[in-house]
Amino acid sequence: MFVLIGMGIVLSAVIGGYLMEEGNLSVLVQPAEVLIIFGAATGSFLISSPPAVVSVVAKNFAKLITYKGPTKAKYLDLLALLYQLFAKSRQHGLLAIESDVEHPEKSPVFSKYPNILSNRHALNIICDNLKVVISTNLPAHELESLMDLDIETHHNEAMIPSHSIAKIADALPGLGIVAAVLGVVLTMGKIDKPPAVLGHSIGSALVGTFLGVLMCYGFVGPMATNFEHQAHDDEVYLQIIKWALTSYIGGALPQIAVEFARRAIPDSEKPSFDELEKYVKSRAK
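Above: the chain sequence. Below: its structure as tokens.
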């Protein structure tokens, strides 16, 4: 929603300012310039990107509109789930949660938290690492290294849309100049025309530069930054899981393990100690 609002503000400010100076909007409507700039940008993206990268970017584009990010409620769900798994394994042994992590969609513990069941990366990192601990008795420091590798790999993949879109943004001003130069070339072919015709032709050519710069800094560049923030949010979410698991496997009580995880939550969404305690107790019923 904020992405759409931001786009509306950019267009309103630019077009509104242009109209305040009594600009003619019809001059800005240049389909040929748009075709040159965005066609060349799309082509350069396909040239520079393997099929896997194109697929990742295409799949993530909808997130610009639908992404909401982790909230305090989602963090509370995560900590409550981890606490219940830790408490169950502490009371009955690690093997007691084997069926939960093997088939989380059928688990009475996981079924209380649909937000986590729908988060494939979070679900995988919880279940896969608990499976490793159950089957190999992996010490906490080795589990931490294993999870760091997992999180780094996921973060690198999550950053692909940001890096790819940023490269497109960087290219847009140059492609706008290409469109403008082609417009000037066409204008030179009309050198014998009246000044009014030449002026209109030159103005049309300069629209290419305008569009390239506007799209770079007003739209495409901010999209790349948005993807970067999304990747950072995912990394923080997975780091919270890591802190809880490594603390518990290292010997901390379930309450202390989730407290370690709570401290890693950003302040803007971090629940208080009392909020977490009350929520965990309410979900354990």
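The chain has a mean pLDDT of 91.
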